[in-house]
Amino acid sequence: MTVPRIDPFHAMTISALAHELAGEGRSIIHMEFGQPSTGAPRAAIERAQHVLATDPMGYWESQALKARIARHYHDSYGVTLAPDQVILTCGASPALVLAVTVSFVPGARVAMARPGYVAYRNVLRALHMEPVEIACGEAERFQISAQAIAALDPAPDGLILASPANPTGTILSAGEMQAIIAVCRARGIRIISDEIYHGLSYGEPAHSVLEYDPQALVVNSFSKYFSMAPWRLGWLVVPPEKVEAARARMGNLFLTPAALSQHAALVAFDCKAELDGHLATYRRNRDLLLKALPEMGLTHIAPPDGAFYIYADIRHLTDDSIGFCTQLLRDTGVTTAPGVDFDPVDGRHFIRFSFAVSTDLIEEAIRRMVPWFRAQAEKARNAPHTA
Ligand SMILES: Cc1ncc(COP(=O)(O)O)c(C=O)c1O
């Protein structure tokens, strides 16, 4: 067995260039990463400051936070969980590693949508498993379907669902989710659902897979809706028979998440008004971008139902999304993520905009990008045909 090769995250290279340009005095707008720029809720920070001043802390798992997360499933989805089914982790990233290692053995085949979050395929590869990528285009709103899973031959061992998804923000309807679960049940396919963008929806809220499948594993985190990415805290929900295996892996691989973050996160659950204010900003940003994209000549997109991303087809302008994002950054200061991070096959034709920044910055980014994209289209029209 050889050590598997893992692709780098290209947006990081583009981000590094953005920071270099900022160091030279350039005005940069960061739309490459999916991270809120708002910081943790005020009351959570106050709680953390108090704890820092009064408590030496240690390795710790907050039973109160586990119980609060279990209550959240009851209140938001009508799902009853024992607090022990919630494993606290250092973000969704380790939760994904735990979910995969308690569900599958090396050599397992696990399906997912392409485009999809870069870590799905790379975590599976790092653990000697095989990603089975299902191509999902604009017509399918970049989401996996029951039909596509039924057509896989042989059946995979597992399926990773993401709704709202990264890089597209699209959500699975309750009907499609139920149909997917029915196919997976019939074919013996274990589901891991990444629900990290729950709470960030622009229409109907997203459904949790646990509403329909108590055997599924759910990955979530405080990084997105709660605006606490650098606090590195998340959770994994497992069915009762997997609690022991998941706890053993958490303890051995990662020990515990930061005690300070757990204290702050418990308070964050009571900061709904402030956090919903961020969602209102994202909604405004989404609307502004959806209006501007046709002016930029970008008409092949699936309007996002949730999260804070738009994934746009730029094949009329380039077949090198890394070069394209680099040039966009150099010329305008707007930093974006190339599609190749999410789709190794067709991603060279796509770009992802993250709109988790302030509305002022989105307005400025649009002011810079509209003339730039128009100039690129003009250039592409006048380029000699090589075919
Ligand atoms: C779909 C998805 N899952 C998981 C993660 C990892 O998040 P965390 O910061 O909680 O590790 C991200 C981060 O962007 C993501 O987009």
Protein model, in words:
The protein has 387 residues and is α/β, with parallel strands linked by helices. It has 12 helices and 12 strands. The strands form 3 sheets. It has a 7-stranded mixed sheet with strand order 2-8-7-6-5-3-4, sandwiched between helices. Strands 9-12-11 form a 3-stranded antiparallel sheet. A two-stranded parallel sheet has the order 1-10. Strand 5, helix 7 and strand 6 form a beta-alpha-beta unit. The model has no long low-confidence stretch (mean pLDDT 97). Bound molecules: pyridoxal-5'-phosphate. Pyridoxal-5'-phosphate binds at residues 34, 91-93, 117, 162, 166, 194, 196, 221, 223, 229, 234.
| Uncertain parts | none
CA(first)-CA(last) distance: 43 Å
What is the structural class? alpha/beta
Estimate percent helicity: 40-55%
**How would you state the average pLDDT, rounded?**
97
Shape: globular
> How many helical stretches?
12
Q: Give the radius of gyration.
A: 21 Å
Largest sheet: 7 strands, mixed
Strand content: 5-15%
Bound molecules: pyridoxal-5'-phosphate
Topology pattern, helix = H, strand = E:
HEHHEHEHEHEHEEEHHHEHEEEH
How many β-strand stretches? 12
Describe the strand arrangement of the main beta sheet, using strand numbers.
Answer: 2-8-7-6-5-3-4
What attributes characterize this protein structure?
387 residues; 13% strand; 12 strands; 7-stranded mixed sheet; 12 helices; alpha/beta; single chain; binds pyridoxal-5'-phosphate
